[in-house]
Write a structure and sequence with these properties.
It comes from Leekyejoonella antrihumi. The protein is mainly beta and 122 residues long. The protein has one helix at 6-11; strands at 19-25, 28-38, 49-55, 58-62, 66-69, 74-77, 83-97.
Length: 122
């Protein structure tokens, strides 16, 4: 059992909107991630998705309203709710949920694979 320093773990990520599992407990995975630009609109029919901001600013767009998050803020997107995370600058965060969701089905944009950067219009 070792401690996890979230800022150190997030600094090792090479792709935006990818997740790295850093711990597990009570059936939940604790995953660091980083984002810039936006994901695609998506929902998770099988799980809630919790975001805890480590560094930067993240806007969670919902069809009904936007939720702006900064360091230390926590927001849970309920299962089945369509959402789109957006970051104007590089943002690092912890995602808590039972599965890894950094896939195309989980909203991961095509440009982000292989360490790509967002197109100008994101």
């Amino acid at each position: 059992m070792d401690k996890v320093t979230l800022t150190d773990e997030a600094a090792t990520l090479t792709e935006f909107w990818s997740q790295k599992v850093v711990a597990a407990g009570n059936g939940q995975l604790f995953k660091v991630a980083k984002g810039i630009g936006s994901t695609r609109w998506h929902s998770h029919e099988d799980q809630d998705e919790a975001f805890l901001i480590i560094q930067g600013q993240l806007r969670i767009q919902l069809r009904s309203h936007d939720v702006d998050l900064g360091p230390g803020d926590l927001f849970v997107v309920p299962r089945g709710v369509e959402h789109r995370p957006v970051a104007a600058e590089e943002t690092r965060f912890l995602i808590i949920g039972p599965e890894v969701t950094s896939t195309v089905a989980g909203g991961k944009p095509e440009w982000s694979y292989g360490g790509g950067t967002p197109p100008e219009s994101s």
